[in-house]
Amino acid sequence: MEQQQRPRRTVPGAQAIARASDLLRRVSASADGASLHELARDSGLSRSTAHRLLTALRVEGLVDQDDASARWLPGPELYLMGTVAAARYDVTELARDIVRSLAVKTEESAFFSVRRADETVCLLREEGSFPIRSFVLSEGVRFPLGVASAGLAILSFQDDHDVDAYLERHPELPERWGRAHDAQPLRSRLAETKARGYAVNPGLIVEGSWGMGAAVFDRDGHPQWALSLTGVEFRFSPERRPALGRTLLAHAHQLTSRIAGARR
What we know:
This protein is α+β, with helices and mostly antiparallel strands.
């Protein structure tokens, strides 16, 4: 006899929680807040559904709405939750002086990002002394793995089957970020990054704004964070990139060692 298939069980309310969580992430990722139109469009929800969920989150203090602009912003409860979670997950204090040193030595804007599921989230930004800057990245901004230099560095040190699974989960990358993010060119950049040790993003997010990134590893050798640099194209010339890469890798190694030591 054929074995009967058991009906798939779903957690009651899981879809609503997933939608609300997605809205929370999108609100938190926008430095100046986000409009209802933007949130509904980017989340794929109707305006009425997005508004209903946002209103419920506002009642709980998880989001707030600016009276003048009507834009949605992170709420006070998120701050309180974050301070509690920081004791376990936050390593920004370990990274702060290293990010500052990276900015001073290169004169470019320097960043510290963490992997969160299939994205990187910027945790720290330190401005360099060079007067022309790129504003592609700032605290709270998220990018899919393999798009910004931080995520490219992290993804390049994943096992091949993890990269395959990631690309299968995200067929939308070329449509959203351009044909340079088709599977084949992305795999080529990953291979180059792994061989070189650091990632180079040649203006693929914003034309003329270049980035470089190096992975930071946990005690088990998994890439969970990244240091990165961004700046205008002529500051990342072929002659200067090797020196920037060496400085970036030295700082990433220092932070990897510091994180491992702090978590023993």
